# Entry
Amino acid sequence: VALIHYPVLSKNGEVIASAVTNLDLHDIARTARTYGVKGFFVVTPLADQQILAGRILAHWTAGEGARYNPKRGEALALIDIQANFSDVCRAIEDREACRPQVVATSARIAAGTVSYPRLRDMVARGDPYVLAFGTAWGLAEDFIEAADHVLDPIGGQRDYNHLAVRSAAAIVLDRLVGNQNRLSFESGT
Ligand code: SAM
# Structure
């Protein structure tokens, strides 16, 4: 999973670098850990935001927070702060010995998006995928166009569709890698 702070859109449609939100780091890290995601990349080119994110991580993985709530530290330990998205893909390629397929997400309805069942089957084959989530008013168009896939928007009321990125990440991960087979719970397998 990658949380993108640049390039994203401002409310006026300009391409900006958004600020890191503490809540996003905690909630998406906990969701990622819950669903067995291998890494959670926080992408920002801004040095002060990288320092901020690093301080949050240090507190919960090695500081007072780690002592107070080790479970939270276990989730935040997934976080890898990167200056840009190409470094994310390089880091995954170094780890997985092949380039990850990039999946962009957006609330906007567009042609050529991939369905959840189809992407679930593709991910299940075991090749590396990186799910990119935006901040602010969403991922910049150039980013979405460069992705290998764009995931169907999570459907809500058509006249309002602005989920918090934390909520979107949880819904997407549950649909893609959540345990949808109730029988396995009943049979205890
Ligand atoms: N209107 C923005 C957009 O079109 O993405 C919503 C931005 S929201 C604050 C930040 C991120 O949450 C989006 O970049 C996307 O990754 C995710 N997101 C929000 N709503 C979503 C939806 N309905 N379907 C899929 N992803 C969504």
Notes: The first strand starts at residue 2 and ends at 4.
